[in-house]
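// run 5 | inverse folding | seed 20
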């Protein structure tokens, strides 16, 4: 599966949700969705530390990280996709973000 580059191509995430700012040439990510399972992110102490630093740096730029368990996606992809879409609608398509709308 192709991944999405964030932070000037320094890191990659599984999926990105973007917003087009009229002052920018390119859309900016505001939500990164990670679908890796426990075994990848917690394989050993070094991997945990590396992943935690990566997540902190991404979040520091204002990009939210939404983690989804890979096993849950495999077992019930439609339900997990619905959860992700519900999160996006609830958090970003509201009075707080009038520039975003659901059509």
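// decoded
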């Amino acid at each position: 599966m192709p991944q999405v580059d964030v932070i000037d191509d320094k890191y990659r995430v599984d999926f990105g949700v973007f917003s087009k700012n009229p002052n920018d040439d390119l859309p900016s990510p505001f939500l990164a969705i990670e679908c890796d399972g426990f075994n990848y992110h917690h394989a050993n102490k070094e991997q945990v530390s590396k992943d935690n630093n990566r997540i902190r740096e991404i979040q520091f730029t204002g990009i939210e990280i939404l983690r989804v368990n890979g096993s849950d996606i495999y077992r019930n992809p439609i339900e997990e996709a619905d959860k992700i879409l519900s999160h996006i609608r609830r958090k970003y398509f509201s009075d707080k973000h009038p520039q975003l709308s659901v059509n």
